[in-house]
Amino acid sequence: MGNPPIRVRVGPKPYPVHVGRGLLARLPRLLASRAPGRRAVVITDARLARSLGARVARSLRAAGWRVDAAALPQGERAKSLAALVHLYGFLIDRRTERRTPLVAVGGGTVGDAAGFAAATYFRGIPLVHVPTTLLAQVDSAIGGKTAVNHPLVKNAIGAFYQPVLVVADIDALASLPQPELAAGMAEVVKYALVFDRSFARWLDSSWRQAVELRQTAALIRLVRHCVRLKAAAAADDEKDLFGRRELLNFGHTFGHALEAATGYRRFRHGEAVAWGMRVAVELSKGRGWLTERSERTLAEALLRRLPSPSWPRGLRRGALLAGLAGDKKVAGARNVFILLRGLGRPVRVRDVSRRELLRAIARTLKQARRP
Ligand SMILES: NC(=O)c1ccc[n+]([C@@H]2O[C@H](COP(=O)([O-])OP(=O)(O)OC[C@H]3O[C@@H](n4cnc5c(N)ncnc54)[C@H](O)[C@@H]3O)[C@@H](O)[C@H]2O)c1
Ligand SMILES: [Zn+2]
Predict the structure, then answer these.
(1) Would you tell me which CATH number, out of the four given (3.40.50.1970, 3.30.1780.10, 3.40.50.1820, 3.20.20.70), belongs to the domain 6-175?
(2) What distance in angstroms lies between residue 273's CA and the mean position of ligand 2's atoms?
(3) Which of 56, 168, 204, 325 counts the most CB atoms within 10 A of its CB?
(4) Contact residues for 152 (Cβ-Cβ < 8 A; gap 6+)
(5) Which of 159, 129, 113, 144 minimizes the C-alpha distance to 11?
């Protein structure tokens, strides 16, 4: 039925990513072919426990599976060491065995935390991602990064651990609040600007159908395309060592700094990344890149479509620069920035000076104030 799964070739074993409608109902069959044993642990968050989490558990039970289900706290608190200890306790208490798959139903926070638990419990049990936010469907469920936060550093404790199966049901996005969908779109725009000019054009012309009207066909096409782009970037750089995967950090050097400087409270990740991409575009222009008018206009049009909370008044330069110093992509003394020579032509630079950056920020804010 529908589209064939996308094969992701990252890590030891390729795995299928199913993108489509009505997939939650088909989950028992999809899971049976990847994890024998008819037993599963479903992990979700407090907000989804009675909706999507319960639906997944119910459909597995109806197909004869024995299911243990637990909910992590909602949002970033799912990724705390305390929540993780709790989850290990749950797995031990239910005598979860080495072959029992852990099914993570939720956004990136559930996927990251449950993924890390799956990677480490008994040195690794099978992991299945059922991403339910746009961000998780196009980004975090693909490529095998899992992590929890340390009180001092976000994502500080983690592992590369690939799932055996990813099931992205577009119907699950129906209940997603609009700001969450919009935050996910930041990563979608990122893929378009960094990797794919024709996708950028499609995105600009299909925005209304996909984002405002949430038309299924447009969303399926969008998610599938992003899964392919993410899979390709991660494919020969699983552990983020050779630079290909690093290109996905476009907008993130500055985005992370902005998140850190505002205590991870003011911006959703995607909202901070949207600001980061605007700054990266200004940095690129400042270097005499991204000169072709149609490309620049398209990039700026896509970035304008992303809503972001306004720039925090009184945000200190010092706090931003401290945030940059703490970004883990620092190589030597300087941050690595991904900039654009053109649409779909990223470059990695590490010689952005403080002055250059401050000027780009100033130009970004000026642009943002324009009607
Ligand atoms: N592993 C990776 O490669 C990777 C990549 C990008 C981001 N991340 C991580 O992902 C996390 C952010 O993920 P997120 O944006 O999905 O946030 P999230 O998991 O916190 O989800 C956002 C909110 O939406 C709710 N929600 C989820 N699905 C819903 C649905 N279908 N209907 C209604 N509500 C729903 C959640 O309960 C939550 O309140 C961050 O911790 C980030 O570090 C990881
Ligand atoms: Zn991101």
Answers:
(1) 3.40.50.1970
(2) 7
(3) 56
(4) none
(5) 144
- pLDDT of residue 330 exceeding 80: no
Q: Is 51 in the pocket of ligand 1 (CB under 6 A)?
A: no
- pLDDT score recorded for residue 333: 57
Average pLDDT, stretch 84-102? 97
Nearest to 121 by CA among 43, 220, 231: 43
Cβ count within 10 A of residue 262: 17
Q: Report whether residue 140 contacts ligand 1, using a CB cutoff of 6 Å.
A: yes
Q: According to CATH, where is 1.20.1090.10 located in the chain?
A: 178-369
From the CA of 274, the nearest ligand is 2
Helix H or strand E segment including 72 = strand 66-72
CA distance 43 to 27: 15
Query: Tens digits of per-residue pLDDT, 349-369?
Result: 999 998 999 999 999 999 888
Out of 32-46, 84-98, 311-325, which region has the weakest mean confidence (pLDDT)?
311-325
| pLDDT above 90: percentage of residues in the chain | 84
Residue range(s) in the chain whose domain bears CATH number 3.40.50.1970: 6-175
Residue 74, ligand 1, Cβ within 6 A: yes
Taking the model in full, what pTM does it have?
A: 0.96
Pick from 327, 280, 355, 21: nearest CA to 153: 327
pLDDT in tens, 216-254: 999 999 999 999 999 999 987 888 887 788 999 999 999
Note the pLDDT of residue 312: 85
- Superfamily for 178-369? Dehydroquinate synthase-like - alpha domain (1.20.1090.10)
Please answer whether residues 342 and 285 qualify as being in contact, where contact means their C-beta atoms are separated by less than 8 angstroms.
no
